[in-house]
Every structure is written in C-alpha cells, then in structure tokens.
Amino acid sequence: MIMFDLNKKYFKDMQHIVYKQWDNIEINAVLNGINPGWVFVNEQINPKTALLWSRGIEGFYFIGEPDNDQFNQNACDFVMNILDKRIRQSGLNYFEVSGDRPEWDSILEQIFDKQELIKSRQCVYKFDLERWKDHEMRSDQKGVTVYRIDKSFFQNRIENFSFVEDEILRWWNSLEHFFEHAFGYCVVCDEIIVSYCLTNFVYGNTYTLGIETLKDYRRKGYCQIAVEAFITDLLEHDSVPYWDCMYTKVASRKLAEKIGFYLDHTYALYRILLSEEE
C-alpha cells in the first residue's frame, strides 16, 4: 500500500472525518492550516482514515475511521520503515501516537503489536466560567511584572527572551506567525522571565495553553499569575481556553482545577522507541 503525503491545500477537506465528540483542537488546528503539520492518507479521493503529524506536539494522531483494514494493515510498516527517517530528521528518536477517539486504543495496540509500546494517559480539561468566577485570583506580588507576549514585548530589556522564543518556535512557523494568530503572558522577576503561559494551538475561538516555570521559581504562584492574565485576555475577546496535560503532571492538573477547569476526558498516548540507525 502506498501512503500519500497530502498537499496542505487539501487539509481542510479532512476535517469531516475527525471525531466530533471530542474537541480535538490540536488536530483541527493543523487541518485548518493554523499550526504546522503533515497528513498521510492511503486514498487521494475521499480518504476515510489518516495519520496526522503535529510539529508542536512532536507526535502523531490516527484520525477518522478506526475499522479501515486497508489502512491499518500497512500502517506499522509505513511508520517503522519509511516514516522513521522523517521523524529522525525532526530530531526525535521515538514515534508517539494517539487516536482521535477511544476506539483507536485497541486498534493501535493491534497495529503495533510487534513493537514495544509505552502507554501513558493525557488529561483534557474544559473551562467552566462559573468556577473561574468563584476562584480566588492570585494577588500581585512585589517585584513581579506581568507582560503580554506580543510584538512590543520583545522590545523590553530582559535577559532570557530565548526561554519564551524557543517555545514559540516549537509550535509556530515563526514569531510573526505566532503574533498573527496567538499571544501569551509571562511573569518577569529579577529582570528575567520566570514563568509563561503561551498559546500552543488555535481553532475557532478556542486556544490551548502551554505553561512553564523556571525551576528555581516554582511553587511561588508565578504560573498561576501568568495563566490568569492569559485567560482574562481570552474572555475579554470572547474566546475560551483549553488545557491538555499529562496525567502524571500533578501540579499542572491541580492548577487547572484550582482556577476553573474540570476534567472532560482522558485518552491514551503510545510511544515506540526507534531503533538506532545502522
């Protein structure tokens, strides 16, 4: 079976096969042409199933009809013997994948049954406006400045712009691309960026967020300050936040629940370590 690398001009035509009971923001953001990625199909006309790569996630999604034997029977060979070279060129030594619906879990385990699968879980949190209104906002702290991350932000005198810039360029094609579609907030203390909340994906009026705090500045509430500024901005523009994190990221999950999110669902994530090149 031949897999076709779908031309980006046809990405939007694939959105109808994506599972509608989950938001699948990361998938739809790629298909909508907002975030960078690839799509592989085995049929050029009306494909029922596809394998989608998200550059920001550094991983893949099986999307569409899970019971597509023609697609599934050759998927492992395609990944392990053809796609692996492209994955390595992206600087990775593993293949990571999940499905756009629960039914994919058992199918993926069958497709890659000869591989050593490392399984974990991701948590998807939805925003509850009433919970947000009821939560106690983090008060301003002395010596801390909150900045909106946009074009003007990079004109400030801050030592570690790369802390934010490198993360933006992981998810977006360029800073200009980010400024066109997204934004973020960061907390500056001691003249350095100590914590940020950035837009990772955008689909419609939904913005997924990504957070990080420098190790020496954790457990001081800086991340909460950045997230609250980010969400306040979103709400002022009739948009909503979306939170997806690893089940094992307990601090991230606790913060999400503290400020007004609730767990909507979890999904399986699979990783296969690629063998070393000969």
TrEMBL record:
It comes from the Bacteria. One of its GO terms (molecular function) is acyltransferase activity, transferring groups other than amino-acyl groups. Pfam families: GNAT_acetyltran (PF12746). Keywords: Transferase. SUPFAM superfamilies: Acyl-CoA N-acyltransferases (Nat). Residues 144-278 form the N-acetyltransferase domain. Gene3D superfamilies: 3.40.630.30. This is GNAT family N-acetyltransferase. It comes from Hungatella hathewayi.
